[in-house]
Amino acid sequence: MSGTEHGVTLGTPIGLTVPNEDMRPGDYGSMSDIPRPSHADYTYQYKYGTKTSSGGGRASARETIGRVAAGAIAEKFLRLRYGVEIVAWVSSIGDIEMKEDVVDTITRERVDSHPTRCPDAAVADQMTALVQECRNAEDSVGGVVSCVIRNSPVGLGEPCFDKLQATLAHAMMSIPATKGFEIGSGFRGTTQRGSAHNDMFVRKGDRLGTVTNNSGGVQGGISNGEPIVLRVAFKPPATIGKEQATVTYDGTSAVLAAKGRHDPCVVPRAIPIVEAMAALALADAALVQLSRHAAVLPFNALPPLQNVVTPLNPAKAQDPTKPADDRAHS
């Protein structure tokens, strides 16, 4: 809509719009009086006194198309400025988990080679069978998306409240259907001793690096130059065709069986969303760091300080308990 011309940005805000040309609001008619279990219908109704009549509104993953579009711009900035690579993949669906460590080698081409977006073909086929089993049973299943950010510059992230892992977690947990976030060793690291968990430093070219990466590329909330490795857990989709005993908004017993198009598993669809949110969080951190560099001037370039207070001579220090006038004239 705006902000670009002839393939380049203009420096003005970039506006995008995506028309939804395949709406089916009638699919939600049977759910108008029944809040879907584990969905946002009840909480939105309670918070705002009203709710979207179909599709979940802002609680629907449809809103993430804007994130993906904006994330593409952020990712291009990171790639051109720093050479950053961001790749996400499906590492588990249900209890089927990919074991191969692909952090250093994974590519988007390999991820997209299978509909499940799991880069291990044999495991991907098992995932496909599980998702189809859930679909046939009118049920759903969740899973985990793993993501690596390679070539991140050192020094991104702010102390205390805007640590890099905190902003990444905020970004990921804002995605619909997310239930968990890990970085580096995550919860597994709690079972290790410090001597095993510590990442030993080693020289890597013109900087320090680490032999292992239990930290997941972030130490003290600041990127250390190693690959940033994170995982995001997605719950089973709440809207399913299987009958569920529940109640209406007024508490009357009811049976809900959702109709229409509903994914039995959203995990493969989440890949570009996770990549986009990683790009947006990292781009924010990079811009903060760039602004810090721009604000730092050589000390001799600063103007001389005026009205400098001379440090108090300890030999002439007076008893602070004396009246002010006595101290001034003593």
From TrEMBL:
<feature type="region of interest" description="Disordered">
    <location>
        <begin position="310"/>
        <end position="330"/>
    </location>
</feature>
<dbReference type="Pfam" id="PF01264">
    <property type="entry name" value="Chorismate_synt"/>
</dbReference>
<keyword id="KW-0028">Amino-acid biosynthesis</keyword>
<dbReference type="InterPro" id="IPR000453">
    <property type="entry name" value="Chorismate_synth"/>
</dbReference>
<comment type="pathway">
    <text>Metabolic intermediate biosynthesis; chorismate biosynthesis; chorismate from D-erythrose 4-phosphate and phosphoenolpyruvate: step 7/7.</text>
</comment>
<dbReference type="GO" id="GO:0010181">
    <property type="term" value="F:FMN binding"/>
</dbReference>
<dbReference type="GO" id="GO:0009423">
    <property type="term" value="P:chorismate biosynthetic process"/>
</dbReference>
<dbReference type="GO" id="GO:0004107">
    <property type="term" value="F:chorismate synthase activity"/>
</dbReference>
<dbReference type="InterPro" id="IPR020541">
    <property type="entry name" value="Chorismate_synthase_CS"/>
</dbReference>
<feature type="region of interest" description="Disordered">
    <location>
        <begin position="1"/>
        <end position="22"/>
    </location>
</feature>
<dbReference type="GO" id="GO:0008652">
    <property type="term" value="P:amino acid biosynthetic process"/>
</dbReference>
<keyword id="KW-0057">Aromatic amino acid biosynthesis</keyword>
<protein>
    <recommendedName>
        <fullName>chorismate synthase</fullName>
        <ecNumber>4.2.3.5</ecNumber>
    </recommendedName>
</protein>
<comment type="similarity">
    <text>Belongs to the chorismate synthase family.</text>
</comment>
<dbReference type="InterPro" id="IPR035904">
    <property type="entry name" value="Chorismate_synth_AroC_sf"/>
</dbReference>
<dbReference type="GO" id="GO:0005829">
    <property type="term" value="C:cytosol"/>
</dbReference>
<keyword id="KW-0456">Lyase</keyword>
<dbReference type="GO" id="GO:0009073">
    <property type="term" value="P:aromatic amino acid family biosynthetic process"/>
</dbReference>
